[in-house]
Design a protein that fits this description.
Largest sheet: none
Number of strands: 0
Distance between the termini: 46 Å
Radius of gyration: 15 Å
Strand content: under 5%
Shape: globular
Helix content: 55-70%
Oligomer: single chain
Number of helices: 9
Structural class: mainly alpha
């Protein structure tokens, strides 16, 4: 298998990332879900280098109620973000638009809880430099649910990595009092 271009994890193969992402997806539907330490490290390191993986993880939570939701499309997006695929890009855009229109209302609360638990576990397990993206996802989910604690996690993510774009977006939205499905 071809190696994914991740400087911190030259040994992370496409199959290792796929296994870790599948473990993530399975955990969303499992009460008291846990990830293996290896999967936590693979996901955290890969998120740092691939915003597509981070975004696929986020979409797996906030778009789970969408009739168009498809785990196989998320896998494709996470695994091969640099391969131009107009249909997949359009699907992701529709999913995000849907998530804003249905923010916090058509939500699988169990998925949100399970995702949050797994993300907190990742933050608690990996090195500080790898915590920004998982924290950013947590902040986005909290913001999307209308929870004011989103600012705290966004600021923590930015303290770890001041260039964390997702956390900056959440912080700016909250600062401007912009919340999904409220404005």
């Amino acid at each position: 298998m071809a190696a994914i271009s991740i400087k911190e994890t030259p040994s992370a193969t496409t199959s290792e990332l796929a296994t870790a992402f599948d473990e993530w997806l399975d955990g969303l539907d499992t009460p008291q879900a846990t990830l293996t330490k290896h999967s936590m490290e693979i996901l955290a390191k890969s998120m740092r280098k691939s915003m597509a993986l981070r975004d696929a993880m986020l979409l797996s939570v906030i778009c789970a109620g969408n009739p168009e939701y498809a785990a196989d499309k998320l896998r494709d997006y996470a695994a091969a973000p640099r391969i131009p695929n107009q249909q997949l890009s359009e699907w992701c855009e529709r999913m995000m638009k849907w998530s804003f229109a249905h923010a916090g209302h058509e939500t699988d609360k169990d998925k949100v809880v399970n995702a949050s638990r797994m993300l907190v576990d990742i933050v608690g397990t990996v090195d500080l430099k790898l915590q920004a993206q998982p924290l950013a996802i947590i902040s986005y989910i909290l913001w999307w649910m209308g929870d004011g604690r989103a600012m705290l996690t966004a600021m923590r993510a930015l303290a770890v990595d001041e260039e964390c774009s997702l956390a900056a977006i959440v912080a700016a939205a909250i600062h401007g009092d912009r919340w999904p499905n409220r404005n």
